[in-house]
Design goal:
The protein is α+β, with helices and mostly antiparallel strands. The protein is built from 3 helices and 2 strands.
Length: about 60
């Protein structure tokens, strides 16, 4: 199993929030982070949010 972080925009016209929730429910060791923003590619539309998430995940991983 590989730990996975899913980042989902809550207002995504291509993949609604239910898609992220379904995927999180079917991927063991997954963590869903829902962003209260619009868009389908948060790494492009909201890069600062995604960088913060990645930094938190990597920092937590480094502590284990």
């Amino acid at each position: 199993m590989v730990p996975t972080v899913l980042v989902q925009c809550l207002r995504d016209s291509i993949a609604p929030a239910s898609v992220g929730r379904w995927l999180a429910g079917h991927l063991p060791q997954s963590r869903l982070i829902e962003l209260a923003v619009s868009g389908h590619c948060p790494h492009i539309s909201h890069p600062d949010l995604v960088v913060n998430i990645l930094q938190e995940v990597l920092d937590a991983r480094a502590r284990t």
